[in-house]
Amino acid sequence: MKLLRINHLGIATTGLDDAMARMAKLFGMAADHVEAVPEQKVKTAFYPVGESSLEFLESTDAEGPIGKYIAKRGSGIHHICFEVDDIEAAVKMLLAKGVRMIDEAPRSGAHGCRVAFIHPSETGGVLMELAQSSPKD
User: Fold this and answer.
1) Can you give the CATH number for the domain in which 25 is found?
2) At a CB cut-off of 8 Å and minimum separation 6, what does 19 contact?
3) For strand 33-37 and strand 42-49, is the pairing parallel, antiparallel, or unpaired?
4) In a domain, 100, yes or no
5) Domain count for the chain
6) Rounded to an integer, what distance in angstroms lies between the CA atom of residue 43 and that of residue 40?
7) How far apart are the first and last CA of the chain?
8) Phi and psi torsions of 106, nearest 5°
9) How, if at all, do strands 3-13 and 52-59 pair?
10) Cβ contacts of residue 83 below 8 Å, gap of 6+?
11) What is the structure's pLDDT at 137?
12) Does some domain include residue 137?
C-alpha cells in the first residue's frame, strides 16, 4: 500500500450552513464542493487547504455514523483520510495482517472516491479513512 498524501481532515458538525458561515467569516473561504452522500447519511462541504482539504460533515440521519458520533462526542475532528494508490489492495493487505476494519470492502464516498475505514481500535483511537480518487486501471 502506498500512501500518496493526506487527502482531507473530516470535521463533524451539527450544522453545515453554520460551519460554512464560520469558514467564510474566519478565512473568507467558500466551499469548492458541497454534496450529499446518501450511503454514508451525510452532507459534506470541502474546503481546499494546500494539497489537502477540510471536509465538514453534517448527519442526515441520527442513526448514521456522523449522527451517532455527534451524539456521543459532539462536534469536532472526526477522521483523517489518506489517499492510496490502490484501495482494493490496501484493504486486502490490512485484512491479511489481521487489522480490524470498519469496511472490509471499499464503498462509495464523496467526490466519487472509493473509501474504506480502519477501526480506531487499531490506530490508538483515531478513525482513519483510506480513499482512492479513481478506480485503478
Assistant:
1) 3.10.180.10
2) 11, 13, 45, 56, 58
3) antiparallel
4) yes
5) 1
6) 9
7) 16
8) -60, 150
9) parallel
10) 3, 4, 5, 6, 7, 130, 131, 132, 133
11) 40
12) no
30 within domain boundaries? yes
What's the alpha-carbon Rg for the chain, to the nearest Å? 15
Q: Looking at this protein, which amino acid is placed at residue 22?
A: R
C-alpha cell at 93: 493487505
Which residues constitute the domain of residue 39?
3-132
DSSP secondary structure string, the chain? Answer: --EEEEEEEEEEES-HHHHHHHHHHHH----SEEEEEGGGTEEEEEEEETTEEEEEEEESSTTSHHHHHHHHH-SEEEEEEEEES-HHHHHHHHHHTT--BS-SS-EE-GGG-EEEEE-GGGTTS--EEEEESS---
Pseudo-torsion of CA 78, 102, 110, 70, nearest 10°? -30
Give Cα separations from 46 to 1, 7, 88, 97 (angstroms): 25, 11, 25, 33
Residues of the chain where predicted confidence (pLDDT) is lower than 50: 136-137
Q: How far is CA 98 from the centre of its chain?
A: 22
**Which three three-digit cell numbers place residue 111?**
467526490
Residue 110 lies in a domain: yes
